[in-house]
Amino acid sequence: GQSLEQPSEVTAVEGAIVQINCTYQTSGFYGLSWYQQHDGGAPTFLSYNGLDGLEETGRFSSFLSRSDSYGYLLLQELQMKDSASYFCALTGGGNKLTFGTGTQLKVEL
Amino acid sequence: DVKVTQSSRYLVKRTGEKVFLECVQDMDHENMFWYRQDPGLGLRLIYFSYDVKMKEKGDIPEGYSVSREKKERFSLILESASTNQTSMYLCASTTAYEQYFGPGTRLTVT
After folding, report:
1. From CA A10, how far away is CA A89, in angstroms rounded?
2. Cβ(A63)–Cβ(A20) under 8 Å?
3. What are the Cα distances from residue B97, in Å, to A30, A77, B58, B87, B92?
4. Is there a contact between A97 and B33 if contact means CB atoms under 8 Å apart?
């Protein structure tokens, strides 16, 4: 099977940079995705890494290293609205996702 | 604007009832998914479908079944609801790596 590990909680101050790590175990996958979920809301897609390296989308960047079974989401210039849960997920056949247990990010003033 | 809708935001059912959760997407996506989300466990895949009348079990299919008679609609069925099926149920659809989620149905089984 597949499994993903993330820290359960991260706290940072507004304007700072925060990195959320994700380590995984799998026998095969197509890519690593990141989703954001605000309290009471639906998960929304943030980024996808099909290849090793860094993908940048505005204030958010995501990184994948297949050799290290590791990825991370980097959030820059943190804003209060970034307070949410963040999930990493492995993409398998049929675009099926296996999610990590999520990291709750708290942004403080 | 892409849209995935679910039939109810909140639902309360009794133990032993048959429960239907409906999901509709307007993006002509072939792949549709049902997840449940519980605190500390993340999202876990119950069933998914590649096409009309096609279905495959996910990681936790026990106690559930699905139906996909039309491309845009994917239904989750709890044959005989139990208290351990109290959860948030999320539907999603995709045609590539990005999944689009519905707003979720919070089901309580008493």
Report:
1. 18
2. no
3. 9, 27, 17, 25, 12
4. yes
Angle at B37 between CA B36 and CA B42, to 5 degrees: 125
What would the two tokens of residue B14 be? 């009794």
Mean pLDDT of the B69-83 span:
97
Q: How far is B96 from chain A (nearest CA, A)?
A: 6
Chosen from A36, A91, A96 to mutate, greatest number of chain B CBs within 10 A: A96
Residue A1 pLDDT > 90, yes or no?
no
Q: What type of residue is A19?
A: Q
How is chain B split among helix, strand and coil, in percent rounded to 5? Answer: 5, 55, 45
B63's tokens: 């106690």
Tokens of A9: 């909680």
Rounded CA-CA distance A21/A18 in Å is 10
Please give the residue of chain B at the shortest CA–CA distance from A32: B97
The first and second tokens of residue A71, run together, are: 């990825």
**Angle CA B48–B53–B56, to nearest 5:** 30
- Render pLDDT for A75-105 as a digit per residue (tens, 0 to 9): 999 999 999 999 999 998 888 999 999 999 9
Higher pLDDT, B97 or A20: A20
**Which residues are CB-contacts of B39 (< 8 A; sequence separation ≥ 6)?**
none
